[in-house]
Design a protein that fits this description.
Helix content of chain A: 55-70%
CATH architecture of the largest domain in chain B: 3-Layer(aba) Sandwich
CATH topology of the largest domain in chain B: Rossmann fold
Helix content of chain B: 25-40%
CATH superfamily of the largest domain in chain B: P-loop containing nucleotide triphosphate hydrolases
Number of domains of chain B: 2
Largest sheet of chain B: 6 strands, mixed
Number of domains of chain A: 2
Strand content of chain B: 25-35%
Oligomer: heterodimer
Number of helices of chain B: 11
Order of helices and strands of chain A: HHEHEHEEHHHHHHHHH
Structural class of chain B: alpha/beta
CATH class of the largest domain in chain B: Alpha Beta
Number of strands of chain A: 4
Shape of chain A: elongated
Distance between the termini of chain A: 30 Å
Largest interface: A-B, 22 and 28 residues
Strand content of chain A: 5-15%
Order of helices and strands of chain B: EEEHEHEHHHEHEHEEHEHEEHEH
Largest sheet of chain A: 4 strands, mixed
Radius of gyration of chain B: 23 Å
Chain lengths: 343, 310
């Protein structure tokens, strides 16, 4: 142990972290459990068959035979009114009314309706003698990098870096202010910068443990790997952790009580939880909104992590998110240090 | 200029909390080096605000402050190294041990006392490896004082160090303060316990509504503002008129606390027989009679008409 006060401050923060099982769980246990749960829930499965009904009547048997031949459709002969009830309630995606012409009843605004229309039509046309004009063959791709878990793990990593930065700095500092520990400390000759620096150093030390834990788990359980450069990946994690620590410090710079800071942190993190592409791609949002969402620090971090992990992107390819993160970090720290209140 | 300067000098100190609370209202104070100085006053008298201004934690609205001959805005870092403080309530980190907290505070000072020495001074050796959250109130307070001692301060500020403590913890803290006083350090302590101020303090300032009402040794203050003794009594029937009581030998003041009368006297040996004679002559029974030495509480009552603990 050295006698430098920075070393003492960092050591104290590490001990406090270590002696608080709750924070350990949120830092290490939670992201692992979440990736396990979501990875299992959304693991790749053979595609579901199309569910259809064939109205009872003349010709129904021939239609059923044609549909079952392809193997992609599960169909049943059903009385007309019951078939339509099943369609309305979504238990079947499409109803075939045999005849000449045969009728397809479905809701074209539902994706499974449109899919059923194509699959059913294809099976019936083939059974009636249609031949393909162009010769094609399928290649099925299911390799690491393209699965949902590969999309998810970088998102969870980003989410974890955000939460740890906001709560680890914002909440902890406000708690110390509300118990007047900050006031007590500034009555000593302690260098104030060293105190704030000790939170940053502690955050990065824990990041250096959290990232390998989550990545190690994702690799062991799902074979998720980093395809791009490892230094670039670690640099991104560090920059992300720094940017969110800066935001945490900013949120906590003047707040006096822990209820307020909890609300502030939630107000900042919930929108990013939903809109920053943690669990699903931001491509699901309207196109005009997407450029704005890319300015959110968590979107920037997630995009960059995904590019490096899944696509093996280099520095140039993630330049924009890097600039976003670096700007957020610089602005947040500058504002936080200007606003910071010690008492 | 600074080494024979007084420990504290402040002139016309004012602290206004917007919109219109004058917590400190033109306070003058001069505290010499060495010994224990008490700021005595009820809750809300402005003691803590005054202390926090002297400690450099609050900016005064106006007025001049010099601590150890230095000004906060010019020599803040130097002053912090030479002072030790306790806040009225200090919550330290719950899950650090006594020793870890003291070592952390020690690391902020270039020179000072060893952690073991402070553990001994504050009688916390047995608790050295206990987490802060598991200490009793008295132990927490002693640790807070310990944190103020690790820098071996020339000037120590203690804000109500014994409020709410059990008698044993109070005595242990008194010993720490006495020990420092004997070593030539200056201790400034706020309290609303008059017995504490009388026992510990070489000099006392009585503070109320942000001003110093009286300043001196406890003995001087009592002699000046409270007479030497107080006779408390109750008579059966309607009480005799105050004018009659005031005429008794030695009496300097008649007071009416709830359920009786108090005579402040500087010749108790003449006042008591005269009071007894008065009771006999009027044919009344003495329900209660007690004499005691005047205290700083009497000083405060005489100066403000109120009790310290009101």
């Amino acid at each position: 142990m050295t006698d430098s006060s920075l070393a003492h401050l960092v050591l104290a923060r590490l001990r406090l972290y270590w002696r608080e099982p709750g924070t350990l769980f949120w830092g290490f246990g939670f992201p692992v459990l979440l990736s396990l749960a979501l990875g299992v829930a959304f693991r790749n499965r053979p595609p579901d068959p199309v569910i259809a009904a064939v109205e009872a009547g003349p010709g129904a048997e021939r239609v059923l035979a044609a549909l079952s031949a392809g193997g992609e459709v599960r169909a049943r002969e059903t009385p007309s009114d019951e078939a339509q009830r099943a369609l309305r309630s979504g238990r079947v995606a499409l109803v075939v009314r045999p005849g000449d012409p045969a009728l397809y009843l479905y809701d074209p605004t539902r994706p499974e309706g449109r899919l059923a229309r194509r699959v059913v039509d294809d099976a019936l046309q083939r059974a009636s003698g249609r031949r393909d004009a162009l010769a094609v063959s399928d290649v099925h791709v299911e390799e690491p990098g393209a699965r949902y878990i590969d999309f998810l793990v970088p998102g969870l990593l980003g989410l974890n870096l955000m939460g740890a930065g906001l709560w680890g700095l914002g909440y902890a500092i406000v708690e110390n202010r509300s118990r007047r520990l900050l006031k007590r400390l500034v009555a000593t000759p302690m260098r104030r910068g060293e105190y704030l620096l000790s939170f940053m150093v502690t955050r990065l030390v824990f990041m250096a443990v959290e990232v390998p834990v989550l990545m190690g788990f994702a690799r062991a359980a799902f074979g998720v790997t980093v395809r791009g450069s490892m230094p670039l990946f670690l640099g991104l994690c560090t920059l992300g952790a720094t940017a969110f620590s800066g935001l945490g410090l900013l949120l906590g710079s003047r707040t006096r009580n822990t209820t307020t800071i909890s609300g502030l942190i939630n107000a900042v993190s919930m929108p990013m939880f939903v809109c920053s592409g943690v669990f699903f791609s931001i491509a699901n949002f309207p196109e005009w909104l997407q450029p704005w969402l890319r300015l959110l620090p968590l979107t920037a971090l997630n995009d960059a992590l995904r590019a490096v992990m899944n696509e093996g992107a280099g520095l140039a390819a993630v330049a924009v998110p890097l600039v976003v993160l670096a700007s957020v970090a610089a602005l947040a720290f500058a504002a936080a240090l200007k606003l910071f209140r010690w008492s | 200029m600074s080494d024979d300067a007084p420990a504290i000098r402040c002139r016309n100190l004012v602290k206004v909390y917007p919109p219109a609370v004058r917590a400190v209202d033109g306070l003058d104070l001069e505290v010499e080096r060495g010994g224990c100085f008490g700021l005595l006053g009820p809750n809300g008298a402005g003691k803590t605000t005054t202390l926090e201004i002297l400690e450099g934690l609050l900016e005064p609205t106006s007025g001049e402050v010099e601590v150890l001959g230095r000004h906060w805005n010019r020599a803040g870092h130097e002053l912090r190294a030479r002072l030790g403080i306790t806040l009225q309530q200090t919550h330290l980190d719950d899950r650090l041990t006594v020793r870890e907290i003291l070592a952390l505070f020690r690391s902020f000072y270039r020179s000072g006392r060893g952690v073991d020495e402070v553990l001994e001074m504050t009688a916390l050796q047995e608790k050295r490896d206990t987490w802060f959250e598991r200490l009793s109130g008295g132990q927490k307070q002693r640790l807070a004082v310990g944190c103020a001692l690790v820098g071996d301060p020339e000037l120590l500020f203690l804000d109500e160090p014994t409020t709410g403590l059990d008698p044993q913890s109070r005595r242990q803290l008194w010993e720490v303060m006495t020990h420092l006083r004997e070593r030539g350090r200056t201790v400034v302590v706020t309290t609303h316990y008059m017995d504490e101020a009388e026992k510990l303090c070489d000099r006392v300032a009585v503070v109320d509504r942000g001003r110093v009402l009286a300043l001196g040794t406890p003995r001087e203050l009592i002699a000046q503002h409270a007479g030497r003794d107080v006779v408390e009594f109750e008579l059966s029937g309607t009480p005799p008129p105050d004018s009659e009581l005031r005429g008794l030998p030695g009496v300097v003041q008649v007071r009416e606390p709830a359920g009786g009368r108090e005579l402040v006297t500087d010749r108790v040996h003449e006042t008591v027989p005269a009071l007894l004679a008065l009771a006999v002559a009027a044919g009344r029974t003495l329900e209660r009679l007690a004499t005691r030495s005047a205290t700083l509480e009497d000083v405060f009552v005489n100066l403000t008409g109120r009790h310290l603990r009101d």
